[in-house]
Amino acid sequence: MFPEYDVIVVGAGHAGCEAAVAAANMGSRVLLATMNMNTIAQMSCNPAMGGVAKGQIVREIDALGGYSGIVTDHTMVQFRMLNKSKGPAMWSPRAQSDRMLFAAKWRKMLEENALIDFWQEMISGLIVEGNVCKGVMTGIGLEIRSKSVVLTNGTFLNGLIHIGEKQFGGGRAGERASTGITEQLVGLGFEAGRMKTGTPPRVDGRTLDYSKMELQPGDENPSKFSFSDTPQAKKQLPCHVTYTNPDVHEYLKTGFDRSPMFNGRIRGLGPRYCPSIEDKIDRFADKDRHQLFVEPEGWDTCEIYVNGFSSSLPEDVQFNALRKVAGFENMKMFRPGYAIEYDFFQPTQLYNSLETKLVKSLFFAGQINGTTGYEEAACQGLMAGINAHQSVQEKEAFVLKRSDAYIGVLIDDLVNKGTKEPYRMFTSRAEYRILLRQDNADIRLTPIAQELGMNHLENRIQRVEQKLTNQEEISKFVHNLSVKPEEVNDYLNEIGSAPLKQQVKLASVLSRPHINLPEIRSHITALDQKLNDYDEETILLSEVSLKYSGYIKREQELVEKMNRLEEVKLKDDMIYDDIQSLSSEAREKLKQIRPKTIGQASRISGVSPSDISVLLIQVGR
Amino acid sequence: MHSDTIIAIATGPGQGAIGVIRLSGPKAISICDEFFFGRNLVKAEGNTVHYGKIKNEDDEILDECLATLFRAPRSYTKEDIVELSCHGSPFILSEIVQLFIRQGVRQAQPGEFTMRAFLNGQLDLAQAEAVSDLIASENKAAHSIAMQQMRGGFSDQIKDLREQLIHFASMIELELDFGEEDVEFANRNDLTELVGKIQRLVLELLHSFKLGNVIKNGVTTVIAGKPNAGKSTLLNALLNEERAIVSNIPGTTRDTIEEVLNVKGIPFRLVDTAGIREATDTIEAIGVTRTKEKIEQSSIVIYLIDTSNTSPNMLWQELSELNVHPDQLVVILNKMDLNPYTDIASYQKETLIKSDHIISASALNKMNVPYIKDKLYELVLADQSLQGQTVVSNHRHYDALFHTNEALDRVVIGINDGVSSDFIAMDIRSASHHLGEITGDISTDDLLEKIFSSFCIGK
Predict the structure, then answer these.
(1) Lowest mean pLDDT among B35-49, B96-110, B336-350
(2) What's the gap in Å between the CA of A281 and the closest CA on chain B?
(3) Considering only CB atoms, which chain B residues are within 8 Å of A435?
(4) Which residue of B has its CA nearest to A619?
(5) Contact A369, A157 (CB under 8 A)
(6) Cα dihedral sign for A402, A404, A407, A411?
């Protein structure tokens, strides 16, 4: 009934979808197995993609040939570039999508790929022969064979949903949990753990009084995620902001004794940066209000996502408390928020290809690795899909360095440090933040992906080359153009910058704080004319490279310095017990993680600089 | 090949006739050449030796030395190497090392030259194994030394500094990663104040390096007084041997004699200012200035007078000109053999020097010289400035603090210029990275921990 596939992807969420298209676009024959084909690419929580650090990841996924950016561009109801007042490394795209359109667009794009087959059933086990994964077994007892398997089970593995004192098995509201896989993996020697996450209530937008809330519109001139020719949003829906108040807090507290968070029924670890409303009130008792974002779920629905009100309190407590929020006095609820516990596997059990160390040809991506967030899941799916293909082709694993991409930071953190709570990306996790910007993701990554063999990137490579040529032209122009005092002094005075005494090159004016090309161009005719030939993205890239060249250069030097250690390989069969001079803690950690390079070893907690010196000596030349 | 250049004092600690400083790396020759005045080292061939002077940024001569040049790959590390053979004063060696650290050369880790030799293929595996053990042992040794040094509160201060830096970084990172959240951000003035506070601490520690060297390399003790008061004689008497007086090399910092006197385990670096004043009698003012400089750098001043020609009032005038702190001062009423009835009390009354800080002695006949030694020892024990205070005495720590300070400078400039916080964060990271070389790194986990525990984050 089934051919032997190159790659079977289990789960069709953000990680699974990206894994399937990545493997297929590399040339693998893929089977995408999901419990329910109607819930492919569900936005289980917030109907939004991107955000600080996460937006950069979506841009990177797009630059590498993944689809999350494209799907979001086609389905967005609102776009905002966050942190616009900060430096270019912080600019972070965020879009809200129409939940239904998002899922439909993903499914369409998957269906358009002839190398992807689908199968709707619960996968209950893996076929493992001699520590190599050779396929999957389904709930009704089918065997489907493949050369590799990618597990992207999300919150479904032994998922347990909590609402107040009620608890029931399930992978998502109204959907069954998946059983069997965890038990089999533990039997194979894997260490499993439990994590927890939650989601807020959905409410009826027709019953809200928006006049009591602040309006939060999208950007006037919305940008987008994909570096390809996806459309720019022509119309947008606004969001609204409102706040909790002491009455709300007092009411919520009446339900604390029935909260699974506080009475110990939830044992999994939840994310501290995505706390439930009860957690916020409990831990920050002195704050008398918390921000709530009222976000539409789509164009043609009145369903509203109450961002900031994640809760597992009893439904009546959620309902009555929410009704005390300004604008929510007559609110009707569609469904209450809930908490969900699920199995994950400590990601230190993976190589940085996302292949498991215990079972060859088996890859993990997404929440199964202890991460949270669509973007984090999607990028792991992409990498696991690529690496499943690479392993089938017996090619070297594709690994991004910390200096290449946020994706590199994420996977490196996971496999070397593991995680104690659901792992979310922050820009502060990246040591080379200035280099890993959303505006240069294509330049950083598209050529690498193209070279690796990701198809459909031919046009994109041309765009990258054109962008670089244009940047060079603008840079030259800015260095050569002389600016006369009379052209810009009025403007400089106006923004509090010292006026020019004599004619200087534009580059030196641009190097001042608070001066940027989009604003100063209107005062310099020659510049304005020149820039008319270029798109905004290229102008931004040029400006950043010119204005912050000092910082960028210093960061690049740091990368070079650190990357020397990345190039020193450690043998897979290194016997750490034989190296007397290592500290015992380092020896244990090294045995467990088995780093591939000295650089990776240096990031393992418990491995000190002196241990690294000892290793350097051992590897020799 | 390594891209940075490293430096270390290659000869053992303590006093020696010569001390060797070794630099290895791509910039070893060019950086040396900037401060080496003699043959142009950049143009010189490998395996050659050149005489010259080392001057610092202010054009002051630090030492005369011989530079031995090795060009890659024909050197121990297979990199460019310069070995500077200087005079063996730990003080001078340390000044020269600091000079190069300020130019971006990095203090070598223990065994690093050997490690480079190995990594660049100079040593074979058997030799390398020996190095491996050596490094491990040196690290342990370095660790215990460091721990000892941290006795004086150094570790507490660094820990405190780290805490403050984490706090500062967390406020910046909060603003960056959680800009969309409903949190209040620290205002720029508070940030500037905080970074100023951190920087003051770093600077304090940097300045203490001189004092740290004092303990490590000896207590600087200046012997001063008018010509013919008997300073050289006293020096010889203290050292209990005849020394050649090398006081006639004009215009260099080595125109003072430096010798180490060991009293009950405490090293005193005795500086005889005799040469200065006697060699420059035509320009007395310069001599006074130089003596004053020496005195400023010193921990203890032994001031000698010839009681046969110095009245109590003249002593008072001479002392007030020098401006020495009374706790640092020991006055020797010399030539007691010639004036056995010297009235110590009258000198004490006139100058208000504590009575036990005035000793009458005869350098020539070594009368009361042991008493002087005891006094020196007592002064060190009593001197609060040498006790309990945090002292940086390790070049690596100095190196780390120096770069921490540099990065903090950039932070301040950034804040003042209104540079956006992602760039400011970069310099804070750089600062914490350098500080981390002393304490162990500040990880982002620390930062996030701080953010989550202090601020209500999350939608």
Answers:
(1) B336-350
(2) 9
(3) none
(4) B119
(5) no
(6) negative
Minimum distance, in Å, between the CA of residue A118 and any CA atom of chain B: 35
The one-letter code for the residue type at A65 is G
pLDDT in tens, B365-405: 888 888 888 888 777 655 544 444 455 556 667 778 888 89
Q: Do B459 and A621 touch (CB under 8 A)?
A: no
Task: Tell me the nearest-neighbour CA distance from A451 into chain B, angstroms.
Answer: 28
pLDDT category at B248 given cuts 50, 70, 90 is very low
Angle between the N-to-C axes of helices B112-119 and B125-149, in degrees from 0 to 180, rounded to the nearest 10: 160
- Per DSSP bridges, beta strands A166-169 and A160-163 are antiparallel
| Residue B458 to residue A83, Cβ atoms within 8 A | no
Q: Three-class SS of residue B307?
A: coil
pLDDT band at B171 (very low <50, low <70, confident <90, very high): confident
| Nearest-neighbour CA in chain A from B166: distance (Å) | 12
Contacts of B1 in chain A (CB under 8 A): none
Helix count (H) and strand count (E) of chain A?
21, 22
Residue B135 scores a pLDDT above 60: no
CA distance B405 to chain A (A): 17
pLDDT in tens, A551-576: 899 888 888 877 777 888 888 888 88
Compute φ and ψ for A132, nearest 5 degrees. Answer: -125, 135
Contact between A89 and B181 using a beta-carbon 8 Å cutoff: no
Chain A residues with beta carbon closer than 8 angstroms to that of B183: none
Nearest-by-Cβ selection for B132 from A86, A283, A581: A581
Count CB atoms within 10 A of the CB of residue A109: 17
Over the stretch A430-479, which tens digit does the pLDDT of each residue have?
A: 989 999 999 999 999 999 999 999 998 989 999 999 999 999 999 999 99
Measured between CA atoms, the residue of chain A closest to residue B169 is: A428
Domains in chain B (CATH in brackets) are: 6-149 (3.30.1360.120), 153-459 (3.40.50.300)
> Are B139 and A613 within 8 A, CB to CB?
yes
In what helix (H) or strand (E) does residue A215 lie, and over which residues does it extend? strand A214-216
Closest CA to A123 of A94, A150, A90, A88: A150
- Peptide bond before A518: cis, by omega within 30 degrees of 0? no
Span B339-343, average pLDDT: 78
Give chain A positions within 8 Å (CB) of B417: 513
What is the set of domains in chain A, with CATH numbers? Answer: 5-196+342-452 (3.50.50.60), 202-337 (2.40.30.260), 458-553 (1.10.10.1800), 567-619 (1.10.150.570)
pLDDT surpassing 90 at residue A602: no
φ/ψ (deg, to 5) at A612: -65, -40
Mean pLDDT on B300-323: 85
Contact A613 B125 (CB under 8 A): no
The pLDDT value given to residue B249? 36
Sort out which chain A residues have CB atoms less than 8 A from B113's CB and list them: none
Tell me whether residues A434 and B426 touch, CB distance under 8 A.
yes
Q: Which residues of A touch B410 (CB under 8 A)?
A: none
Residue with tokens 């040593």: B123
pTM summary value: 0.76
